[in-house]
Each structure stands twice: as structure tokens, then as C-alpha cells.
Write a structure and sequence with these properties.
single chain, mainly alpha, Hypothetical Protein Ta1238, Chain: A, 4 strands, 54% helix, EC 2.5.1.17, ATP-binding
Length: 196
């Protein structure tokens, strides 16, 4: 079986139910979701299974959910068969609430980086934000797709921020605070207070 089809040589690709230009906003959106998925895969190779089994389980589920998001964006039939539901959004919210309590207290903005896994998760986070912005553009242009995809991407970026902090914390690496940041996280900040 050949991997190349030559059907996209003139700048178009297949959606589920139509053809579209490769630079169409819908294609840009699900292509960006594919970028997120790839960086999540890279982050998974940088996480030690003995210390990050929970994150690896989360991220594997997220990779499948991102495929569902991409498939839903690609489905332009009159009667689309969407896969995404509210359940993954609710699961992300629960995990975010758990993960933010683990690292040391955070009061200021942080710079992306630290351990390799944390740096990669931050890259995935920023690409997720871009994918979310692209779904907003689709909504404004009247394109139809399940609104849960946009909500999922919004929660996912928060999850990836929390996961990056946990990756640093469990690796014994402090987050690098933005030196000119005011205290932006109100109500005692994010994370746990030091026991010292």
C-alpha cells in the first residue's frame, strides 16, 4: 500500500463529505490540533513511567480525544457523526483541580521551561491556544462544528499548564518566574503552601 495518493497535489484535501483548500480555516484548525497531538506524544517520551504513570494515562486519553476533535472538525456532511461529548471536558476539569494542588505555591507568571517534559508540555499548551483561537474564527464565520471542541481545547490548555508544573515539581525543578510579574494568582495562589 502506498502512503501517497497525489490527490492533494493541487492544494486541496478531503474532508468527510467534501473537498477543501489546504489553507482553509477548518483545515488550519484540525491541522493545529494534529500539532498539539504530536507534541503531547513527544512529552510522553520524556516522562518517566515510574513517576508519571498518571500523567501518561491522561495524555494517552487526550491524544485519542484530540483525534476525535479533529474528526469532528473534518465532518461536513449534512448529518455529521460527531464523537466528542462533555465527558472529556469534565474529566479534564477534575484532573486540573487535582494537579494544581501538587506543585509549590505559584503567585506569579512563569516562563515556559524547566525539565524537557515540562518544556514540551508548554509548547503543546501554546499550540492548543492557537487551535482554540482558530475554532473561534470558524464560529465567527458561521462554520458548523460541535461547540464542545472549543470548550475542550480551552480546558486542555489549562490541563497542560498544570501538567507542566507537575512535571517540574516531581523532577525537583522549580518553575522559573517571570521577573517583572506582579502577583497575579489571587486567593493564595496556585499549588500547595510550603511546609517549611
Amino acid at each position: 500500500m502506498k502512503i501517497y495518493t497525489k490527490t492533494g497535489d493541487k492544494g486541496q484535501t478531503s474532508l468527510i463529505g467534501a473537498r477543501a483548500d489546504k489553507d482553509a480555516p477548518r483545515i488550519e484548525a484540525y491541522g493545529t490540533i494534529d500539532e498539539v497531538n504530536s507534541f503531547i506524544g513527544k512529552a510522553m517520551t520524556e516522562l518517566d513511567p515510574s513517576r508519571f504513570a498518571d500523567l501518561l494515562e491522561d495524555l494517552e486519553a487526550i491524544q485519542n480525544e484530540l483525534f476525535d476533535c479533529g474528526g469532528d472538525l473534518a465532518d461536513v456532511r449534512k448529518d455529521p457523526q460527531y464523537k466528542m461529548t462533555e465527558t472529556p471536558v469534565e474529566i479534564l476539569e477534575k484532573r486540573i483541580d487535582e494537579l494544581v494542588e501538587e506543585p509549590p505555591l505559584l503567585e506569579r507568571f512563569i516562563l515556559p521551561g524547566g525539565s524537557p517534559a515540562a518544556a514540551t508540555l508548554h509548547i503543546a499548551r501554546t499550540i492548543t491556544r492557537r487551535a482554540e483561537r482558530q475554532t473561534v474564527t470558524l464560529t465567527k464565520s458561521g462554520e458548523e462544528f460541535p461547540s464542545v471542541v472549543q470548550r475542550y481545547l480551552n480546558r486542555l490548555s489549562d490541563y497542560l499548564f498544570a501538567a507542566a508544573r507537575v512535571a517540574n515539581s516531581r523532577n525537583g525543578m522549580p518553575d522559573n518566574e517571570y521577573v517583572r510579574s506582579a502577583k497575579v494568582f489571587k486567593g493564595g495562589g496556585l499549588g500547595k503552601k510550603s511546609e517549611e
